[in-house]
Amino acid sequence: MREVDNVIAQRLHSSVPLVGQVARYIISAGGKRLRPALLLLVAGALEYRGAQRFNLAAVVEFIHTATLLHDDVVDESTLRRGRATANESFGNPASVLVGDFLYSRAFQMMVDAEDMRVMQVLSEATNIIAEGEVQQLMNTHDASLDEAGYLSVIRSKTAKLFEASARLAAILAGSNAEIEQACAEYGQALGTAFQVIDDVLDYDGDAQEMGKNLGDDLREGKVTLPLIIAMQRGDTAQRQLLRTVIETGSTDELPAVVAIIRQTGALEATRQAAAAQAQLAIDAARKLPSNSYAEGLLQLAAQLLERRT
Q1: For the chain, does the N or the C end have fewer beta carbons within 10 angstroms?
Q2: pTM for the whole structure
């Protein structure tokens, strides 16, 4: 990961000072670096030691960071990772344009791999992520959204880059189709579980630990799995309250919404859905060669369910 951070620092350079300033601001905020870590773990499991693993790990982090910059503008977010978002600090125009810079720099870097399969996987992933973002925008404040519609969005918006990260490592390692597919399945299941747990924490987390405001999803009109399950299980009055807050985006009733989500067992049901995805990831990881890196992949999937931030 230190090597990946070195690549990131080198490739953030720009002759336009504001570009580097904004990009460094959001990347230096830290974050989990899960996607590059996933690529490195899978590469290790498949015994690939080439330097391209550092380059492509930086690429997926750049793509992820670009989506964060754009997301925070769309969502009008003010807090991420415990400090002001880039759009709050530098304004919306700078955030959008620096997000564009990171996307284009990522495409410059992926060319370095000189592999059309790498280009194919990353270009497809980037396009699907953008489609997922648009679909999520269309779904805002829609109280009729069901679990299938919710999963469709997060598999595009979040899980696709996890899937691509794992698949890229298999491509670099020259793996056969079966192993590449197992890696992709691991990444997609892990990314889905990650997002489902993230949606639980929006109603059951600690704002200080998470570094973002609780109830942001509700304010932004995002209908996530805890709300969907609560809508299915609640009585008439509870469903009406949830419908109203979803459609208005008001957080005035957040304590009542959280109470309904708890009373209906929606949080536990959502955690069970995440556990099912984590198990799919574990099953896929067991198809890989047995070594310390593969063991790390198993541990990552298992520990994901325990995250509080």
Answers
A1: N
A2: 0.92
